Amino acid sequence: MSDVSRRDTLKVIAGATVTATTVAAAASGCAKPSPGQQPTAARVNAMASNATTKTSDRDEVVLSVAPLGFPWKTLDPFLFCVHHDDRYPAGNETLGPAVSLAGRNLGQDFEGKDGWRMYHGEIVPGFPQHPHRGFETVTVVRRGLLDHSDSMGATARYGGGDVQWLTAGKGIQHAEMFPLLNRHDENPLELFQIWLNLPAANKMVDPYFAMFWDQTVPKRKTRDSSGNHTEITVVAGSFDEMTPPAPPPNSWASRADAQVGIWTVKMESGARFTLPAAPPGTNRSLYFFGGSGLAVNGRAIPPKHQVQLRADVETVLDAGGRDRSDETEILILQGRPINERVAQYGPFVMNTQDEIRQAFADYQKTQFGGWPWDRPDPVHSREQGRFARLLDGRLDRPA
């Protein structure tokens, strides 16, 4: 479901009255869609033009190939993944863009004019106050900074490789704003936001959020037999004896048998890297979002495409960029499916339509704890460094 339609959902939520019929009809409209020879860069790029979406006996590890959309399609236990990559200009005194906003559809600015978007922000780019229930958000900020504030009183500024893992549980409101701190140069921002479902038994747990500071997120650079490098970053799930900080206690990812993995892979042109097999029954998706060349078990994948992989066999990746500066970048999402019914209406993800109606009623009655901040789009001062004030009041900072 797009962020624009989520905005429309929030307008409905904000209304004084939401009938059961309205919720059911709207929810139905938001249903979730459901080793070969190492190639040279030229060969990978030539093969990409002939890539198909059909599975053959030779490359049975590749189950399907599809263009990346907005948001990216995901497999159970994931609900949603979006890649924000904005080249923001210099910032002004209010930490917004120091350029004219004329011609932008403020409040729903998703067009990418001049290489950046205000999203739902009208002063500072980002996503002002909005609710969630029944799932988790995993936010990986690769470049730039994000200011978090929520209805429990927790707040943070993080970025540059930091990860926030938020269990919405029975309900929370939060704001995610992108402050532009640099007055004299561009303010690039790149992040992934990934929605991970909660099983029915955990949908109504208390909210929880954890910060994984960049230096605690495992990274390893490997070298293949030709001397080319691949770097893997492990946000969730162990990989080659690398284990990231523990996910929240009620997360599906906290179960060892859930096989949840969130990994980013960066490959030099010509590099080869092998993804190990996962247990049978695991879903695995590969998102080729950066660079110009990639082959999966000898099959060329066009740039900006998603690949559904058979997870229980090894997968050989070959990067085929034009030159050393043309790195291949990949996101891997994997996990054992929860295999429960999903009822979703925008920011609420439950198991039945009755539970969605109850989520609306509860939000209108309680506001999921209210909003303790003096504006819907709070940001911290320009001078504030990275920090997190957690739900229990503890102050956490990177080492």
User: Helical segment tally?
Assistant: 4
Q: What would CATH call the homologous superfamily of the domain at 36-69 and 218-340?
A: Jelly Rolls
Q: Roughly how many Å apart are the termini?
A: 37 Å
CATH class descriptor of the domain at 36-69 and 218-340: Mainly Beta
Contiguous runs where pLDDT drops below 50 for at least 5 residues: 1-6, 11-58
What does this structure look like?
This protein is mainly β and 399 residues long. It has a domain at 36-69 and 218-340: Jelly Rolls (Sandwich), CATH 2.60.120. 11% of the residues lie in helices and 35% in strands. It contains four helices and 24 strands. Strand 16 (294-296) and strand 17 form a beta hairpin. Helix 2 crosses helix 4. Residues 1-6 and 11-58 have low confidence and may be disordered.
Which key features would you list for this structure?
globular; 399 residues; seven-stranded antiparallel sheet; Jelly Rolls; six-stranded antiparallel sheet; mainly beta
In short:
This protein is mainly beta. It contains four helices and 24 strands.
